[in-house]
Each structure stands twice: as C-alpha cells, then as structure tokens.
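seq:
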Amino acid sequence: MAPDLFLQRIAGNLSRMDKIINPAPFYLLLSVCCCQVLAQAPEQPQTYGIGRTATAAEIAAWDIDIKPDGKALPPGSGTVAEGEAIYVAQCAVCHGKEGGGGPNDRLVVHSAEEPFPDASNEDTWRHRTIGNYWPYATTVFDYIRRSMPMNLPGSLQADEVYALTAYLLHLNHIVPADAELDANTLAQVEMPARHRFVPDDRHKYQEVH
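struct:
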C-alpha cells in the first residue's frame, strides 16, 4: 500500500478508535510512518540551476533610488519648455493634455488653491496630484525615471527626466515658466504638501500613537 494512502486510512480511523481504546500506540505508529516517508524523500539540492549571480553593473543599473534631499540625483538638467515637448510625445496619451487626466491619473491641480485631499472622501485618491499631495519634488524625478513611460520604463535619459519634472512642477504652479532643474535646483524645491508628512518615529515601527 502506498505510504500516503496508508496514512490517510490511519488518520481517518483514529477519531473513532480513540473512543474505545487508548490511541497512543496509533499516534506512535503514525509518527514512525511519517518519518519513513520523509526519509525516502530525495535530499534537497543546494542550488536549483536557475539564474546566476547579478553583476555589479546590473545591480548598479537598478540601484537608482533618489532620496528626498536629492542625494543620488544624476548629472544633467532640463527646462520647462523641453519638458513640454517630451510630455506631449510620451505622456499625454495616458495623463491627458497638460496633466489634466486621461485613462490614467490626473497629475496637475485645477488651481494653485486646490487643497490637500480630504481623507474622509472615499474618492480621495482621485484628487491626489503632484501639486497638492506629493511631499518632495525629488520623488517626481525618481518615479518618472524608474517607472515612466509605462510602455518603456527606464528609457528616458536624465536630461529628459529633469525636463519633465520641471514641466509638471510648472503646471502645478510650483516653479516658473523659465525654470531649469538640475540636481541642485530640484533638491531646493519646496512642495506645498511638504508639511503634511512627518517621519515615522514609532519605536521599531511597533508603536502607534
């Protein structure tokens, strides 16, 4: 009899048998059978022959996160005007004319006075834009660089990402029309919603207050 069928029969009968006799010997027998089944199992290999160790260059290509203070921003620069041309060609199909929304999210506030999204509104996510919700301008750069355009993420050069960031910040009334952003000037941009976010100071992330 196959070991698995044998174990199933024993397990199925124990609930009835333990009412009339001491079930301890049967549990012992069940343990012995389990040990035999495990002993017959093939030893697990150290490796499975899938993939390889990533090279330093491959790791570096993915290690591109930008800190809120601008640390790790790459060399390069871009203007609002340059960003507009790139946006029309690469972004408008998803996010609409001038970031007003399309098949995907709206990126731009309706006006400079648009308030921080109301968390009590079940549709609050629809009102989250770069201009009234994002706390750091450097996050705009980081997100575009690694995730956009959706059909070819990571394909934009640093100058193009700076330009797109400048254009979107301008549409959100944060930088002027003649702005040119680079690693230094982008890190200095103060976002309207910056004060809405605070560091998580819970002890080891275990305390809620």
